[in-house]
């Protein structure tokens, strides 16, 4: 069940994330690479998955095994044009800050 959540998030599969959370998967469980579902949501720039994970109790400050926060991943993987964050990145950062 827990690996189902990280696998679904890694695949950017909203329905899979919903199903895993309905089955009470731990939102902070990490996969073999040291990433949790929240990290994959930030990498994929998916605010829907991020919102679901935060509502399920995911830690918005959970660091990767390399010490990177969800906020950092959002910035790194967001579209940046002339130093301006994309609207999606801005929305995700607001979600993360509200839960911090």
TrEMBL record:
ANK repeat start-end pairs: 33-65
InterPro entries per record: Ankyrin_rpt, Ankyrin_rpt-contain_sf
Keywords, sorted A to Z: ANK repeat, Repeat
Pfam families linked: Ank_2
SUPFAM superfamilies given in the database record: Ankyrin repeat
Cited PANTHER family: ANKYRIN REPEAT DOMAIN-CONTAINING PROTEIN 39-RELATED (PTHR24171), BRCA1-ASSOCIATED RING DOMAIN PROTEIN 1 (PTHR24171:SF8)
Name of this chain's protein: Ankyrin repeat domain-containing protein
Organism expressing this protein natively: Shewanella corallii
